[in-house]
C-alpha cells in the first residue's frame, strides 16, 4: 500500500519511503479489493489469500497502524481470515469499519463442484475475531438464486438501523441482473429483502437453428447478431431469430429495448 502527502510525494512517515508491504500467506495469490480508514488512524484492507492458487482463496482482512506497520492486536500479526465451509473459495469485496473498530465485510463465495455461488456478510470484533452474535458464528451466506452460477457483491452500506445493504449482480452465461439484499443488524437467518432488476436473456445457449430472446416486461426490442470482430451478421426485431445461416462457433448479440441495451455472448453448436 502506498500513501502520498497532499503534494503527491511519497509519505516518508508511512512504511518504507511511503510504501507498506504485507505478505498475507507466503503463497502464490493474494490481494485486496477495498481499503477503509479505521479508528485512531488505522487502515483496514479486505481481500483474499490463496497459498495454493486462486481456488484455495480464503477471505482475508488486514489492519495497519497509521505508520504502515501491521497491527498486532488484530487477527494474527495484523491479518484475520475466514475459511469458508465445504471447500469453497471466497473473497472479501468491501468492508465498513464502525467507530468502535468493528468490521462488517461483504463476501462472495464460490463452490467449485458443483458450481454454486453465495453472497454473504461477516462481522468482526475490533480484534479481528468473528462476532458470534451475528449470523452463524459471525457469518451469513445466502444463495440468492440457486440456478445461477455468478453472484457478485460490488458494494455495501450500513443503514440507519444497523442493517447491511449489499448491491451487486447475479447471472450466468445468458443473463445478468442487479440485486439488492438487506441483512438484519444481528441476522441469524440472513436476508430480509432481495430485489432484482431483470436483464435480457438469450436461450438456449448453446443454440442450433433458432435463438430466442426473453425480454423483461415484453418490451419492444431490436437485435444485432455479430461475430467476435463486431461485424453484423443478422439484425431485426422480435423475440425469435432464425440462425440456420450461421456456422458453428461463438457470437455476440446486442439487444436494445426501450430502457436498456445488453450484449451477450452466445454459441452455436
Give an overview in words.
There is one protein chain. With 269 residues, the chain is an all-beta fold. It has strands at residues 29-37, 43-50, 58-64, 79-82, 89-97, 103-111, 116-124, 139-142, 150-158, 164-171, 176-183, 191-197, 201-203, 210-214, 221-226, 232-237, 240-242, 249-257, 261-268. The chain is built from no helices and 19 strands. The N and C termini lie far apart (47 Å). The model has no long low-confidence stretch (mean pLDDT 82).
As a percent range, the share of strand residues is: over 45%
State the low-pLDDT regions, or none. none
Cα separation of the termini: 47 Å
> What is the chain-wise order of helices and strands?
EEEEEEEEEEEEEEEEEEE
Mean pLDDT: 82
The overall strand count is: 19
* Overall SS class: mainly beta
How many discrete structural domains?
A: 2
Strand order of the largest sheet: 1-2-3-4
Helix content: under 10%
Largest sheet: 4 strands, antiparallel
Q: What's the alpha carbon Rg, rounded to whole Å?
A: 22 Å
Shape field: elongated
Helical stretch tally? 0
Keywords:
elongated, 269 residues, mainly beta, 19 strands, single chain, four-stranded antiparallel β-sheet, 2 domains, Immunoglobulin-like
Question: Quick gist of this model?
Answer:
By secondary structure, the protein is mainly beta. The chain has strands at residues 29-37, 43-50, 58-64, 79-82, 89-97, 103-111, 116-124, 139-142, 150-158, 164-171, 176-183, 191-197, 201-203, 210-214, 221-226, 232-237, 240-242, 249-257, 261-268.
